[in-house]
């Protein structure tokens, strides 16, 4: 019995797209990992990002195995592909769990306690100050918890706190308008978006992996039946 060419080439196409998708998400997740200050990635979310980078890297390997196994109808490669997808599916479930944990109030309290250690902001290293000033510009806010006072005193409040949008809540400090809204709400909203992105990516990859596992099993069964019929 001849192995179905439709299933074989469908599995090959799936693995090729899987391979390309793995490269794309690996590049994006690596960029987020290297620029975690710009994306406000906390220590609670960092393990999920690291795990996503690892899963995408392994995906490239098993995507290649799946392509070769489908074209050559190699049972060993297809079996390795299936077991690899199963392992990665379990790891992606862990990414989803870490992303969900990062959304809990307990995790948010940990983030707040970590930020309290950065006060006052004017005493932090220059790179930390510059990263947070970018957050203030993006979020139209100033300071962590109590506005400009988190910088220490009014003389060291940076220009990133200057009120450039009259529709925002502002206050006058030493003759200039600065944002009166602390950045904590903006940061927590950003963390929620990052965790949503992580869980959404994990879900999408999980669905693709389940599809790949089904196709590989079907192809394995057809190859096995074909071998037995020849014997």
Uncertain ranges: none
Could you tell me the strand content as a percent range? under 5%
The termini sit apart by 11 Å
Largest sheet, in brief, is:
2 strands, antiparallel
Q: Give the number of domains.
A: 2
What does this entry look like structurally?
With 231 residues, the protein is mainly alpha-helical. It is built from six helices and two strands. It has two domains: 5-108 and 191-230; 120-185, Cd81 Antigen, Extracellular Domain, Chain: A, CATH 1.10.1450. The longest helix has 47 residues, at 184-230. The chain starts with a helix and ends with a helix.
Summarize the structure.
By secondary structure, the chain is mainly alpha-helical. The chain has helices at 5-34, 46-72, 75-102, 105-116, 126-139, 184-230; strands at 170-173, 176-179.
Produce the secondary structure layout.
Layout: H1 5-34, H2 46-72, H3 75-102, H4 105-116, H5 126-139, E1 170-173, E2 176-179, H6 184-230
Helix pairs in contact: 1-2, 1-6, 2-3, 2-6, 3-6
């Amino acid at each position: 019995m001849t192995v179905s060419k439709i299933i074989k080439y469908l599995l090959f196409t799936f693995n090729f797209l899987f391979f390309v998708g793995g490269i794309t998400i690996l590049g994006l997740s690596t960029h987020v990992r290297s620029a975690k200050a710009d994306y406000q990635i906390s220590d609670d979310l960092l393990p999920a990002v690291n795990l996503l980078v690892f899963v995408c890297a392994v995906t490239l390997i098993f995507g290649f195995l799946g392509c070769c196994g489908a074209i050559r109808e190699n049972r060993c490669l297809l079996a390795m592909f299936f077991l690899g997808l199963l392992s990665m599916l379990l790891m992606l479930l862990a990414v989803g769990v870490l992303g969900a944990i990062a959304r809990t109030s307990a995790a948010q309290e940990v983030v707040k306690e970590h930020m309290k250690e950065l006060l006052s902001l004017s005493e932090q290293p220059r790179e930390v100050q510059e990263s947070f000033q970018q957050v203030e510009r993006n979020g139209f806010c100033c300071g962590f918890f109590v506005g400009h006072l988190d910088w220490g005193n009014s003389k060291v409040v940076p220009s990133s706190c200057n009120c450039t949008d009259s529709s925002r809540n502002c206050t006058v400090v030493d003759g200039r308008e600065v944002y009166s809204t602390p950045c904590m709400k903006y940061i927590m909203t950003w963390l929620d978006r990052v965790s949503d992105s992580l869980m959404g990516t994990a879900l999408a990859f999980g669905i693709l992996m389940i599809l790949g596992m089904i196709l590989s099993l079907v192809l394995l069964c057809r190859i096995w039946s074909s071998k037995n019929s020849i014997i």
